[in-house]
Amino acid sequence: MAGSRKTRVAILISGRGSNMVSLIEAAKAPDFPAEIVLVLANRPAAGGLAHARAEGIPARAIDHTSFADRAQFDAALHAALTAEDIDLVCLAGFMRIFTPGFVEAWAGRMLNIHPSLLPLFRGTHTHRQALDAGVRLHGCTVHYVVPELDAGPIVAQAAVPVRSGDDPDSLAARVIVQEHRLYPAALALVAGGRARLEGDRVLFAGDAAPADGALLSL
Question: 70: annotated binding-site residue?
Fold first, then answer.
């Protein structure tokens, strides 16, 4: 990632890839420090593949059902990423749990966006979890991927209020607006070297820290 070369990013999707779209759009800016050079899906029918191809980005499926186990699928995924000299992997609705070996191979080089304010509400059905818990703030988190699910060091978060009368769908609609803003901002911090992983914490250079409120939206 040295010199003027932009960070080479691969996006992994399983479906329509709405967060993928927001990353692709952000990366069109000349001063964005990353370029999206590959999109991979574990499902051939993933709708986001066609969008990526329409944007001129190489995109293909590696069908997880074609492999005997997770390790073989992860090996194929790893081979595809290394063949394209990928610097950083962004998960965007990628609905597969990796083997520890794959996570270790990409340690410090793989980001995910999760629809809750971690460490609250890991796993699935996060909006229902938030409503059931009665929290007044909900949101999304960009974090580094570690072997434990939804537990990696946090890069950035955005919050939304939980309103009376919310159901999981209305809350999800409010959160995804913030996801589409947060993920490109977090990727820019990491790819531009303004956020770096040190141990189990993310450190920020100068005024890039989210603590200034720039990445926290209500």
Answer: yes
